Amino acid sequence: MAKEASTRILINELLQRSGWRFFDDENGSTNISLETNVKLKKKILDDLGEDFEKTAHGFIDYLLLDERGFPVAVLEAKSKKFEPLVGKEQARKYAQSQNVRFVLLSNGCLQYFWDIEHGNPVLITEFPRPESFDHFHSFKPNPAALVDEKFEKDYVALTQNPYFRNDPRWDDADEVIQSAFSAETGLKFLRPYQLRALTALQTAVNNGNTRFLFEMATGTGKTMTAAAVIKMFLRTGNAMRILFLVDRLELETQAWKAFVRLLKNDFLTVIYKENRDDWRKAEIVVSTVQSLQFNNKYRRLFSPTDFDLLISDEAHRSVGGNSRAVFEYFIGYKLGLTATPKDYIKRIDRTDAGGRDPREWERRQLLDTYKTFGCESSAPTFRYSLIDGVSEGFLLNPVVVDARTDITTELLADEGYSVMQENTDGELVEQSFFGRDFEKKFFSDETNRVFCETFMKSAIRDPLSGEVGKTIIFCVRQDHATRIAQTLNEMAHALFPGKYQSDFAVQVSSNVQEAQQMAISFANNNLNAIPDSPLPLT
């Protein structure tokens, strides 16, 4: 009895933390009924079989009620020595007796949420809030409708302007005129490979998958593809509200602007932190994962059932480490977008667990992008590589310039770059550095100078002014960006005396004030409000 009582205490605390009330208070009337006596209908007993004939009467551990006092969910409690799922069938018959769709299963430590009309129980860390069931009453996912949804290249454009085909400029058969019309009006059309991504998702849904991974090269329009996916889910009734997670502030603003531009005529998009009081009115909610993670805000402000589809932009970063907890907190469909997924289990022996720590295999699994999105075979739901983009004419092949020095050559070698350094005892000892150590453990002004000189010599220049074109340079760390920016500005001053006031190269990183706006200004060709765009370093 003591173990059972301790379980009930834990469950009671979880319920109260999620806004359920055992007694009337200032927030409203009680919405929990304890040990409700039920009499099962004959049909339910027939469906359950002879083994249940002796259970025509029963007691529901917790019956959760809506604001009118009608049942919305059954909560079946089990002792901590049992897995909550052992109560699944018992909870099902109780739910059917109350004519409700939703079941919660708990032993005080593990909790499951189950829509008995759709799918299997899903592990959750918090109970859904009472208001979440208002959402579910009007929401019944229909995967078949998602699989059968038809789309063409104008799938998103029809949301932007459903009558664009009536415009005489579009009606003209000339593709050049149509292209000019699209550019003028901002209409966006799906490319063939983006249509293939949508088809791949439909196939995955048809196969019963709820997690998907799109691996698409940089510059191939992941946000545009995401907009089409969002429309598919909302239009077919398989989502009522969608969370789009990013890992940087500037990406948050970019995503919001993109979805407003592409989908505003049908769906409302908001940034969570700017709409804390009315985000529920929106179909698309954009947020940084860090904002929700801070002080476990996501647990306090959201229910696990608040979003029917969660999309993780740059998924290899935004679901790693502690951010994974935010991602896994919400139930429903999940889509990852990335150009560079991380496969942490490719080079590890499962039986040996890395040969070092028995927890290594589990740690690698948690960090593995493919496994996170249900792609254990390291084959994403859809893949469109740089090679694919180049071969189909949507991307340009990068030009590789050799900027090696003796030091970088050694850094990349198996033996590494070795130097003699003094230890704490004042003795000279040999220390080896490798490519991953550059600008982290090993610093070389000479190597940075060679990099910058190579760039200045090889950069594409304006044919009239001879100035270097708009460029983004990615650095190892923020202090590395500081050094590179300083070196480039010194070189620019020597090449173009008086032309720049130390703004040929501008550092754009989180430790620089107003960096987010600087990134936006760079994209709009007006960084530092000068006509000649300098180089941002990040």
Which structural traits does this protein have?
4 domains; alpha/beta; tt1808, chain A; globular; six-stranded mixed sheet; 36% helix; Rossmann fold; 538 residues; 17% strand
Structure report:
This protein has 22 helices and 17 strands. By secondary structure, it is α/β, with parallel strands linked by helices. It folds into four domains: 136 residues, tt1808, chain A; 37 residues, no CATH class; 201 residues, P-loop containing nucleotide triphosphate hydrolases (Rossmann fold); 95 residues, no CATH class. Helix 20 crosses helix 21. The longest helix is centred in the C-terminal third of the chain and has 18 residues. 32% of the residues are buried.
Q: How is the secondary structure organized here?
A:
Blueprint: H1 2-17, E1 32-39, H2 42-48, E2 57-65, E3 71-77, H3 88-98, E4 102-106, E5 111-115, E6 118-124, H4 132-137, H5 143-148, H6 157-160, H7 168-171, H8 175-185, H9 192-206, E7 211-216, H10 222-235, E8 242-246, H11 249-263, E9 269-271, E10 284-288, H12 289-293, H13 297-301, E11 309-312, H14 315-318, H15 323-329, E12 333-338, H16 360-367, H17 369-372, E13 382-384, H18 386-391, H19 406-412, E14 417-422, E15 428-433, H20 445-458, H21 478-495, E16 505-507, H22 515-523, E17 535-537
Parallel strand pairs: 3-4, 7-12, 7-13, 8-10, 8-11, 9-10, 11-12, 16-17
Antiparallel strand pairs: 1-2, 2-3, 4-5, 5-6, 14-15
Short description, anyone?
By secondary structure, this protein is of the alpha/beta class.
